[in-house]
Write a structure and sequence with these properties.
Elements: H1 4-17, H2 30-39, H3 45-55, H4 62-77, H5 83-101, H6 109-113, H7 120-131, H8 140-149, H9 157-167, H10 170-186
Helix pairs in contact: 1-10, 2-7, 4-5, 8-9, 8-10
Length: 213
């Protein structure tokens, strides 16, 4: 993305199409969101929501998850990829939440990233949604949109994140995470991007985009 005015126009367009973007993961408490985000690795939000629709009515606190035990927990999340390791990480995280945080989700990056199975991306999601911090969690969608549009080119998710944090104007930073994810999920798709429906087509610098509709 060459100039600041193009960046402003890009986010104004995204804002006009969705003024208050939200996560598509279903949750009612901070702990439920932590669980949902941990389960979302290499899984779609739709599949996570189906799994948690069965899990949360049975167990939606750290203690209740621990009471389930590993085998019963796996039963509820077995439709998700990597469910064996996710079950182990989730149980270990629940144990740590109880022992170190009184069963509550901590609001500091260092404490979040110390939880088993929680990396920078998950921490960024939680800090943004639960604690209103201006963070951007770079998943495959944001990585693609950042590179394809020229908004934040980078070879790694961290590079894209750092460029976005420098490039996105302050007034858009709080919602930038969700705008870019949803744009990548529904418009700027990996294989067949819907350039003819794109609200930021004029600002996009992707050399392969169609030049005419």
């Amino acid at each position: 993305m060459v100039d600041n005015s193009s960046v402003i126009r890009l986010f104004e367009h995204l804002q006009s199409t969705n003024p208050e973007p939200e996560t598509e993961l279903n949750y009612a408490t901070p702990f439920e969101l932590l669980v949902a985000v941990m389960l979302s690795a290499q899984s779609t939000d739709i599949s996570v929501n189906k799994a948690t629709a069965g899990l949360f009515p049975i167990a939606n606190t750290p203690g209740a998850i621990l009471d389930l035990g590993e085998e019963r927990l796996k039963h509820y999340i077995s439709t998700l990829g990597l469910y064996n390791s996710k079950a182990k990480h989730l149980l270990a995280t629940c144990q740590m939440l109880i022992e170190k945080h009184g069963g509550e989700v901590p609001n500091r990056r260092e404490e979040l990233e110390a939880l088993p199975g929680v990396g920078r991306k998950t921490a960024n999601v939680l800090l943004n949604i639960l604690f209103d911090e201006p963070t951007i969690a770079v998943d495959t969608h944001i990585f693609r949109v950042g590179n394809r549009t020229g908004l934040a080119p980078g070879k790694t998710p961290l590079e894209v994140e750092e460029r976005l944090m420098k490039t996105v104007p302050d007034r858009f930073i709080q919602h930038a995470h969700h705008w870019l994810i949803l744009h990548g999920r529904y418009i700027c798709k990996a294989r067949k991007p819907l350039c003819h429906l794109c609200p930021i087509e004029q600002e996009c610098q992707w050399p392969e985009k169609p030049t005419a509709h």
